[in-house]
Amino acid sequence: MRNPVPPLPRPPSSRQGVTCPYCFAVVSAQRIPYRCRGQAGRRSGCAPVLDKELAEYTGSTAGASLPPVFEAPGGRARAECPACRQITGSRVCPECHNPLPSAYCDSPGRIVALVGAKNAGKSTYIAVLLHELMNRVGTELDASLVACDDRTIERYKRDFARPLLEEKRLLPTTASAATSPREPLVYLLTRTLPPRTRFSRPRSESICLVLFDTAGEDLRSREVRDLHLRYLEAADAVIFLVDPLELPAARPAVAGALPEAAGEDPDSEPINIIARVTEALRTRHDAKPGERLRTPVAVALTKIDVLRPGMLRQSALHRSRAGSGVLDLDDREAVNEQVRSLLHEWQAGQLDTFLGQQYADYALFGLSALGGIPEGGRVGAGGVRPYRTEDPLLWLLHRFGMLAGARPQGS
Ligand SMILES: Nc1nc2c(ncn2[C@@H]2O[C@H](COP(=O)(O)OP(=O)(O)O)[C@@H](O)[C@H]2O)c(=O)[nH]1
Ligand SMILES: [Mg+2]
Ligand SMILES: [Zn+2]
Ligand SMILES: [Zn+2]
Q1: From which residue to which does the signal peptide run (predicted)?
Q2: Is 122 within the bounds of a domain?
Q3: Relative to the CA of 387, which ligand 1 atom is closest?
Q4: Does 368 have pLDDT greater than 60?
Q5: Rounded to the nearest whole angstrom, what is the distance from the C-alpha of residue 169 to the centroid of ligand 2?
Q6: Are 83 and 222 within one domain?
Q7: Contact call for residues 107 and 208 (beta carbons, < 8 A)
Q8: What average pLDDT is seen over the chain?
Q9: Which residue segment(s) compose the domain that 51 sits in?
Q10: What's the CA gap between 156 and 185, in Å, rounded?
Q11: Is 138 found in the same domain as 77?
């Protein structure tokens, strides 16, 4: 962190193709089809038809009766439906017919993927991070978080926000992807940025959060592996969640009664999951042996609230982030070093070493989605009090040139 890596180059221009955040097909930006606006109220237009591609993707015909998809080469933001002559701005993936928002088509190449072993805290993290982005952090950053499709909105409410944030119940363990929906939650996070020069207009830039709530172990099973490998290969940035309770030497540092650890399954060990993801990324980027990947990787210890208060005192992790709409680089370095020394103390130094060998650009984080130890299947008495959950994302925004860095102490 001392010698900051230069910001990442701008994402590949859309001429190189757009990766669908639902099925990960790479499609030419010139050949993205459109969906007719259809009928509404007194507006006449094409009648809904069963969208076979979409139904096959979701595995259900429910919600797949939609105005037809048509092609109009040229890659423009709008096109005229050849059947009803209405102008539409809705574009869809040619393979799976899921919506591809304009902001995404215009700056593809920023898919953020989330990975972690079973029990690492992924579902809880997704629930809380999205809520934070829609509220406090969104306001701070002047950023909007928009779900890219209606199923994402419904599933977020039903499976994440309602149980955890309203009813204060812990989320059920994620079923294996072999039986649960294979669909990710897809969001576009768009930030308004100041104009580059005095004469230009403010601009906005987006990243696409593609959140699969599946266990990293699922990469073992053949059926799911294909989709997940494509997911990982499509990732332009990765957030790895690591449960500190899975690091054997960390256990003495933990306060109070311990929840059950995931067990002795070597496949769910953080380093093995990170190694599998790394393999996928190396394949995609055709990395030579010894060459480090440029994909930014954020590795976060979850459930940091379980650490004994004594461990946190005097530490950077103890401070809350100032919340000023910039990335505080001094704070970032302090937290990075703190987590690194925790990893070494907990005999997980090989994790740090491995990351350093494989990635030119990685950063370490500590966070807590719940902010307290849950009791009897429910959120602790103080409610959900997230702590530094947004940090990995702020760092990624910074790496993508979407958030300025600052040293408030003027060092
Ligand atoms: N103390 C604490 N426990 C957490 C936190 N987040 C998750 N947990 C615990 O970890 C368990 C697994 O979390 P979950 O999000 O379901 O993990 P997933 O399998 O990766 O989706 C939950 O049931 C909680 O008991 C946190 O921020 N603090
Ligand atoms: Mg889960
Ligand atoms: Zn698709
Ligand atoms: Zn039409």
Answers
A1: none
A2: yes
A3: 27
A4: yes
A5: 13
A6: no
A7: no
A8: 85
A9: 16-102
A10: 8
A11: no
Nearest-ligand number for the alpha carbon of 243:
1
Instruction: Please give the distance of CA 119 from its chain centroid, rounded to a whole number.
Output: 17
Q: Please, which pLDDT band fits residue 224 given cuts at 50, 70 and 90? A: low
Q: Which of 61, 79, 102 is the last residue of a domain?
A: 102
Q: Which of 30-44, 48-62, 263-277 has the lowest mean pLDDT?
A: 263-277
Q: Which residue of 131, 258, 303 sits with most ligand 1 atoms within 8 Å of its CB, as the best mutation to test the pocket? A: 303
What CATH number did the domain enclosing 322 receive? 3.40.50.300
% the chain with pLDDT above 70: 84
Question: What is the total residue count of the chain?
Answer: 411
Angle at which helix 329-345 crosses helix 349-358, to 10 degrees, equals 130
Under the banding of pLDDT at 50, 70 and 90, the label for residue 122 is very high
282 vs 216, higher pLDDT: 282
- At residue 56, φ and ψ (nearest 5 deg) are -65, -40
Strands (E), 118-250: 143-147, 185-193, 203-211, 237-242
By the 8 A CB rule, do 207 and 264 touch?
Answer: no
